[in-house]
Amino acid sequence: MSDPHRVAAARRLLDEVSGPAAYDRLSGLAARLVGAPHAKVTLFTDHDVVVGGHGLPAGVVGGPALLTGALSAMTVRRAVPLDVPDARRDEQLAQLPAVTSGQVQAYLGAPLVAASGHVVGVLAVYDPRPRSWSADAAELLGQLSASVIAELELAAAQSAVGASLARLDVALEAGSVGIWERDLRTGTVYWDQRNAAIFGLQGPLEHVGDDSQLMAAIHPDDHASVAAAMRAALEGSGEFVAEMRVLRADGALRWAVSRGRVVRNSRGEAVRFLGTTVDVTDAREEAGRRLASLQRTTAIAEVAAALAGATRIDQLAQITLRGAEVLGASTGALAVLDPGSGQLRLHMGSRLMDVVEVAAAEAGVAPPPDGLEIALDDELPTQWVARHGETVLLRDPDEAAERFPAMAELTRVLGAEALAALPLRVEGRLLGVFVAVWETPHPFEGDDVEVLEALTAQIALSVSRLQADAERDAAVAEMRAANARLQLLSETGRVLSGTLEITEQIGQLARLVVPALGDWCWVLVTDERGRLRDMASAHRDPGRGAELERYVRTMVAGMTEHAAARVVLRTGQPVVLPELDADFIERALDDPAARRALTRLDPTAGLAVPLVARGQTLGVLGLYTAADRGPHTQAEIDTAREVGRRAGVALQQARLFGQQRQLAEVLQRSMLTAPPAPDHCEIAVRYVPAAAGAEVGGDWYDAFVQPDGATMLVIGDVVGHDSRAAAAMGQLRGLLRGIGHHTGGTPAEVLTGLDRAGAGLDLDAMATALVARLEQDDPELAESRTRVRWSTAGHPPPLLVDPDGTVTLLDGDAPDLLLGVEPDRPRTDRVATIERGGTLLLYTDGLVERRDRDLDAGIAELVRVLGGLTELPLQQLCDRLLERMYLPDTEDDVALLAVRLHPQDLPRPPEAGPQRVPPGIAPAPDVVPGAGAARR
Question: Closest Cα to residue 841, out of 697, 704, 670, 685?
Fold first, then answer.
């Protein structure tokens, strides 16, 4: 649990937890919904910390999660839900203290994933008794885990907002300004501490109900005017101003001025009042000098409150204009330095913007929506302050023209008789310039400069906050985009390694890159002669898939040497098309039908990257975007190139694998001869090479007729999956055929001779094998029966299917040792009877043994499947059996030999084919004399 990024993310969230109540509630809800007695939220920092939980002591925050810490740590490492119905039955969990103590037997945990993508903790429920967790329980816990992380992220966000509000609070405290708010929907009134203090009360206050208690602090003679001002604000402009006498509890009488505004929702409905209150008693006593200062202070408070709610920098110019108007300024502007590029952008107040819009309309252009970029020089006051960071105060046109000659033209166009430009600074960093403009000369007397500096300080804090927010949002967006690109590459690797069927790979790849890298795409690959052919395509609108396929076919047939695919194939380099114009389309496509089809797909930009492997271009991936998406970014181009590289490697590997596998299969099959068809015996054989890898295998089958007419059946498997195993298989098979034919011995005698010959010839190979011999005497012929004598060297047992469909596993005694272990160990024959019409099945272990099941389970499944196929003709039975039992990704090859003994008192059935016996063996008559006589 030492991942520093995960620890940092968890610590950031944990530092913002103000109390466990929310997490106790969520964990309690989790316990109730899932029906578990215990639940808790755990964050993993340098040590696991319990945030809150159901069934824990009240108010638990912090400390190690000793009880379920190990289980929760597993959940964090895996980053997926952990479902433990009974920990005592799990070898990895049974020895944990929480399990051995009996406190935790069943556990269900869901990971807590922060917005950064890191797993920072776990929401878990547990039970001291074993239990099975339902799918609904797991889904509910996952949904609640999202709620927990939302609580944590909200706390972190609130902390960031709190920092900005703290700075605002300092400014309001300096101005002794109280803030009040009235929620018009609920009737709730809130006074902050300063506002309550103005009325001689302890604050902050929150009041619900009628206003009689609050109005008691206001002189009765002023009740009507305050109420009238409220109504006028609600019914009119939305602005509220009221002067009132405050009756304090100590009997003192103070004067206060309250200013506010109505806040409306998107439908224009009034939802709340937001305002400020200032004690103006001293101002009334010194009305002449202090009146202007009071108005300015109130304006600064209003501006500060408005600045705190701004979400974009272009909103600040209009907000700060209200503060400049207190000094008589007619308009204002805000120039901000871009943190990345260093460019200076000017955001203008309403009156300046009106002049610019008129000039833009006359010139036939639109004003820039994100501010006007201006040169960083010393020609005008705004740029000069942005470069040097010093305040400029220009009292009249003469002073302005003397210091900045270019101001003469602005005075004429804008009527700017006086101007103040102040630097925006936060912690020594120069962020931009605040500009106020007067239509008449302005002497900057009294506290004018102080007011301007106070406004500038508030503006600077807001600019800093918004820039920080923008940088954070940009970083988060870039991180998400980078994660998405990494996820795409990861998925590309998974898709290209999931199968060796290249057509399926490329089809999945096309569906993966759309819409991640384009609105539609095509993939072309070269064939053995270097010709391009279409292999896959995908459109973000599935309904247009067929239309895209038709276009790609016509494109491949009619594209010229100027087409992107041809250029990429020729050069091995990407082709980027920021704009697809008509001239390029006409040069790239000769066929008018192809050009019309492309036009209907409406691409505006494109990108083609090579599928490269070992310096050879094997194909091309084309990606196209519509107008709402725009050209590909550099990051998308780089990602597409990497996708093409990985696809090229996969394409080359698939081609090599196909060639090697085909060669291996041809070699393997060349060693396996067609079986004979003696008497009324039908023999079917199958061989399927391993799907994973291109090595030849050691599985084999064989069937031949001994000189006495008996049919020998052989199935075997040499240990190993390589060329040595295949060579050993060929030698063992040849030796067995020779020994079995020459000696005419029983299966046990043949296997003994084979084992001794292998040792004597130093074959150095181990193998399993099963040899069976079909025998029949006159009584058995009369009874329509055949005797099967077999011996097995460590091989899976044969299966016998009676004519009535009953499946029997012939596994009486333990099999003898493998070949190549102890050549002198005696071997035994086993005997069974087959009714005519019955079937005998021999197979290798690749048919029944897989990683997810052992041999016994596989044989049991084989018996079950075979029981449902007994009525099928023998050839179809073998095919259907392979379809049901053999998986496409099996890592072992399979050999299969099935024998069906047809009745001898009837002609050989057509599906069995003609009788085939080697030279020197007399064929059986069409109907064998005496067959089935005892049953008539």
Answer: 685
3-state secondary structure 699-714: EEEEEEECCCCCEEEE
Token pair of 253 as six digits: 């009488």
Please count the helices (runs of H) and the strands (runs of E) in the chain. 27, 32
Q: Decide if 327 contacts 445 (C-beta within 8 A).
A: no
Residues 246, 255 contacting (CB under 8 angstroms): yes
CB 397 within 8 A of CB 414: no
- Number of residues in the chain: 936
Dihedral Cα 132, 136, 140, 145, nearest 10 deg: 60
Q: For 377-395, how does the pLDDT look when each residue is reduced to its tens digit (9 = 90+)? A: 888 999 999 999 999 999 9
DSSP state of 432: E
Name the token pair of 209: 């109900």
Take residue 478 and report the two structure tokens written for it: 């870039």
Write down the residue that tokens 């922060």 correspond to. 114
d(CA 48, CA 2): 11
Residue pair 27/40 in contact by the 8 Å Cβ criterion: yes
Phi, psi values for residue 334, rounded to 5°? -135, 125
Separation between Cα atoms, residue 822 and residue 793, nearest integer Å: 11
pLDDT digits (tens, 9 = 90+) for 486-527: 777 677 767 666 555 677 778 888 888 888 888 999 988 887
Neighbours of 257 (CB within 10 A): 18
In the chain, the largest separation of any two C-alpha atoms, in whole Å, equals: 141
Which residue from 390, 359, 389 is spatially nearest to 372, judged by alpha carbons? 359
CA 776 to chain centre: 67
Residues 125 and 160: their CA atoms lie apart, in Å, by 32
> CA-to-CA distance for 805 and 823, rounded, in angstroms?
39
Q: How many other CB atoms sit within 10 Å of the CB of residue 163?
A: 10
Dig out the tokens for 461 from the structure. Answer: 């804090």
Q: How far is CA 741 from the centre of its chain?
A: 64
Angle at 742 between CA 740 and CA 748, to 5 degrees: 30
Residue owning tokens 């609130």: 158
- Token pair 């994933």 is at which residue? 113
Residues of the chain with pLDDT below 50 are 1-2, 6, 14, 16-19, 59, 61, 288, 290, 693-694
Rounded Cα–Cα distance for residues 910 and 486 (Å): 61
Indicate the pairing of strand 616-625 with strand 681-688.
Answer: unpaired
Please list the helix, strand and coil fractions of the chain in percent, rounded to the nearest 5, in that order. Answer: 45, 25, 30
Q: Are 184 and 272 in contact (CB under 8 A)?
A: yes
